Amino acid sequence: MTDPEDAADAMFRALADRTRRDILRRILAGEHSVSALAEHYPMSFAAVQKHVAVLERAGLLVKRRHGREQLASGDVEAIRSVASMLGELEQIWRGRISRIDELLTTEKTGTTDITNNPTPEEK
């Protein structure tokens, strides 16, 4: 996946599922075999494998073989890129909220305080 926007879409789709977020938390704490991960969920081994595959395709998980086992670990750099994207969005919204606060402060301290001026109907 070379397009950063496609990569972001895949990451956020993968993270939209509660089970996948839980799997990601576990493998970020340490490498786990897929069969050991499957023991934590009330679903089939095949279903857990599918969740692991989605995380792997999204670039959030790395698998390696050790004998007959598949070991999964989290890709910390991918998680950092997701955090960075969310941080950028947070900054955009913080800027907007800050501008709204400035406008409200200006309205309160300006010559026309609309909150305290009675309307013609109130006079």
Approximate helicity band: 55-70%
- CATH H-level superfamily of the domain at 4-77: Winged helix-like DNA-binding domain superfamily/Winged helix DNA-binding domain
Q: Determine the structural class based on helices, strands and strand pairing.
A: mainly alpha
Mean pLDDT: 89
Strand content: 5-15%
The second-level CATH architecture of the domain at 4-77 is: Orthogonal Bundle
Beta-strand segment tally? 3
Describe the fold and architecture:
The protein is mainly alpha-helical and 123 residues long. It has a domain at 4-77: Orthogonal Bundle (Arc Repressor Mutant, subunit A). Helix content is 62%, strand content 11%. The chain has five helices and three strands; from the N terminus they run H-H-E-H-H-E-E-H. Strands 1-3-2 form a three-stranded antiparallel sheet. The longest helix is centred in the C-terminal third of the chain and has 34 residues, at 76-109. The termini are far apart. The model has no long low-confidence stretch (mean pLDDT 89). InterPro entries: ArsR-like_HTH (IPR011991), HTH_ArsR_DNA-bd_dom (IPR001845), WH-like_DNA-bd_sf (IPR036388), WH_DNA-bd_sf (IPR036390). One of its GO terms (molecular function) is DNA binding. This is DNA-binding transcriptional ArsR family regulator.
